[in-house]
Design brief:
single chain; 236 residues; mainly beta; two-stranded antiparallel sheet; 3 helices; 11 strands; elongated
Amino acid sequence: MKKRYLALILIFFTVTAFGQSNFYRLSLGGSAGGNYTFADVKGKPAFGGAVNLDYHFTPFITAGIEAQMGLLKGGDRNTGHQREFTNAYQAFMVNAKFRAGEFTDFYYSDFLNYTKGFYLGTGVGMIKNNMNEIVRSKINPDGNPYTFPGKDVSSGLIVPINVGIDFYFPDGWGDIRYIFNINYQANWTFGEGLDGYDDTKTIRRNVGSAPDIYNFLSIGFKYTFGPRGLTGKSIR
């Protein structure tokens, strides 16, 4: 009888162990990629990089901070407006992300298991615009000079929208230590600082008041560390 009870206890703890998983609460990572600007001046491809520090409430729900910097470029000289800019920007934002693995039972589906790291997220932040190259004046067809109004240095509010996927890789002990990431981020900006020009309504009649946007498509790598949490879902 004692052996039977002992066997039942061992089975109970074995099932519990397989049904739960430890995970690290913190992750630090970096990413790099290309960006493109949708503003009053036609955008051109450029590049940027970012550093992220995230806190994991669960393996699939995080909140974190991101520091980003790079170049934003645009120009419409071929249209006759002759404007062109290069913005050496810096951005800082806080964000939250929610991954599919938090809401799906991926144990019994290969597709759900492969896509458990798919996520959506948003946040808020600030951007500092610094025009290290910009066309500030032109000669009108009537021969008179025209100076483009705007600021070479400015700052403003941004709202990032993130769509991406994480792929998880264990270390030699079986713990998830490494995360490979693909992320697409659309940043809504407020104000007229992204391209350095503030005369669009003068140049282009009936223009709307839509905010300027820059997109950032990146690949990155994260390392998990710090205190551990316990979840009823296995990440592996």
